[in-house]
Design goal:
heterodimer; A: Arc Repressor Mutant, subunit A; 14% strand; B: Arc Repressor Mutant, subunit A; kinase activity (chain A)
Chain lengths: 241, 288
């Protein structure tokens, strides 16, 4: 089965995963731009009047990214107690619900009033899931004349999950970079400290242990890091006499 | 803390790391199954590729757990008995059907920062490569690719190194880079691995390198404690001493120590120990 919808869906996946314009390691990862793409594609494919994404606390929390600057999502701070926040916390999707329904009115009264005040009639939310965690939530809002197609919500879920995978993968890359730097920095510092001990031992006729005590005492009394002082000793810029 | 306390701690720590790794493997397997269940739907290809990635990740956690458990068992068996304390790397060597394997970690300039060896042969081979400044681990690290050589090929490729290995009774070397997602951390080198012929190896070199990389970069990594890594403190202390005595930089000082070791057929560590503990002074004349 090939329909124009399928082509649009394929194009959305290509766009979200970077497609042929994927940065070749050079340009920084822009999570806001990615989430805006997700909101735009989901709203377009599912016929929603508006869409926005909320990130889970672990991923920066309150970043709400509306699909288009033109849509009526001003004052969205109400979402902090709305269905997307609930979905972020629980990882459970919210099916298409009428804003006037008792389910919405009782759970998110302020959100319901806010959305109805802007002319929306329905809300649905899908989580951005990756591996075992919920990275965020994608909320879709519908106008009264164009209800959200419940059967199509899995499409939104797939787009949301692909986005979540992109976010998690980028985070893993950044973590790996940080851990590598940390390991190398720790080992390089140790090497510098041992070299400085040797230098001080000769300069002051000390044993390596005494040289270490001198180095540590100097660093402590000045509130400096041992490795920084060691590098100064090696560069000939420290006076530990 | 007594020796027995320290050994008990080491056993418990290895067991804790093993159980952490098993838990992570299980998490990844569950997540892989979830992705596989959805692989027929929209975005199926990405789901399938995510599932495959998670299964690889789970296998690495499981392999790390297996290594830690084996290490814990060897430590527990050794406790209270004579003989050298079991080294973590001997478990890695075991998986390749040999006794000798080394792990080296380099800095961003590819200078060696730390190493771990499974036995005296591996340690001697590692010392040789460190003194010469060239060898399979250095090539695997700088090239980011698996490097291997056998017999006379070793001496042709790395003059001095091949002859030294032959003296140690080693005929074949395989070195594989430790690649993180962003750079190369060092190398795993295996000496005289058992030939498997057409049979599949229990673990591939690339897989073992990936497992060790993950262990080095783990959230609670303590390479000295759980991988038995040696920072060669005495070599760096001697380097500092020689740099003052000769009025040269630390890089030149290290080269002087290595040159003396090579000229006398000693290890860099042995010469460094003489400088630090016995007052040996080496001069610029030694380099010639």
């Amino acid at each position: 089965m090939t329909t124009p919808g399928h082509h649009r869906l394929a194009a959305a996946f290509v766009d979200l995963t970077g497609g042929s314009n994927a940065p070749a390691g050079g340009s920084p990862f822009d999570v806001t731009a990615l989430l805006r793409k997700l909101a735009n594609h989901s709203a377009g494919l599912l016929g929603a009047s508006a869409a926005y994404v909320l990130l889970a606390e672990a991923h920066g929390g309150s970043a709400v990214v509306p699909a288009d600057p033109g849509t009526r999502l001003d004052g969205l701070a109400y979402e902090l107690a709305g269905p997307a926040r609930t979905c972020c916390d629980t990882g459970i999707p919210v099916p298409a619900l009428a804003l006037s329904s008792s389910a919405v009115q009782s759970r998110w009264p302020r959100f319901a009033a806010w959305a109805q005040g802007r002319g929306y009639a329905q809300v649905a939310v899908v989580p951005l899931r990756a591996h075992t965690e919920t990275v965020g939530a994608l909320a879709l809002l519908a106008a009264p004349h164009r209800p959200l197609p419940d059967a199509e919500l899995p499409v939104g879920q797939s787009l949301a999950d692909v986005t979540a995978l992109m976010i998690v993968r980028e985070r893993e890359r950044a973590e790996s970079r940080a851990l590598t730097d940390q390991l190398q920095h720790a080992l390089t510092s140790r090497v510098a400290i041992e070299q400085a001990k040797g230098m001080l031992a000769v300069q002051h006729t000390l044993t390596p242990d005494e040289a270490f005590a001198l180095l540590r005492g100097h660093a402590r009394s000045r509130g400096r890091l041992l490795a920084d002082v060691a590098h100064e000793v090696i560069d000939g810029n420290a006076d530990l006499a | 803390m007594t020796q027995a306390d320290r050994s008990t701690d080491a056993v418990l720590s290895a067991m804790r790391r093993a159980s952490d790794a098993r838990r992570r493997a299980l998490q990844d397997l569950k997540a892989a199954a979830r992705n596989e269940a959805l692989a027929d739907g929209p975005g199926g290809e990405l789901r399938a590729s995510a599932a495959a990635m998670l299964r690889r990740s789970a296998a690495r956690h499981a392999a790390a757990a297996h290594l830690q458990e084996a290490h814990a068992r060897r430590l527990a068996t050794w406790m209270g008995r004579p003989g050298d304390r079991p080294r973590f790397m001997s478990g890695v060597a075991d998986l390749f059907g040999t006794r000798s394997a080394t792990l080296t970690v380099v800095g961003s300039d590819l200078d060696q920062l730390a190493s771990a060896a499974s036995d005296s042969t591996a340690k001697a081979a590692q010392e040789l490569e460190f003194a010469l400044g060239s060898g399979p681990a250095a090539d695997a690290t700088s090239g980011g690719l698996l490097v291997q050589g056998t017999g006379a090929e070793l001496e042709r490729r790395w003059p001095g190194y091949g002859a030294g290995l032959a003296e140690l009774g080693v005929g074949t070397v395989v070195a594989v880079p430790l690649l993180s997602t962003t750079q190369c951390l060092g190398a795993l080198t295996v000496f005289d691995p058992q030939p498997y012929g057409d049979r599949p190896r229990p673990v591939s070199y690339d897989e073992m390198a990936a497992v060790l990389t993950r262990m080095l970069l783990g959230p609670d990594a303590e390479p000295e404690l759980h991988l038995g890594m040696d920072l060669q403190e005495v070599v760096h202390q001697a380097t500092g001493m020689v740099s003052v005595q000769c009025g040269c930089g630390v890089d030149d000082a290290l080269s002087l120590i290595k040159a003396r070791a090579f000229a006398l057929g000693e290890t860099t560590t042995a010469v460094a120990a003489q400088i630090v503990h016995e007052g040996l002074r080496i001069g610029l004349g030694d380099a010639e």
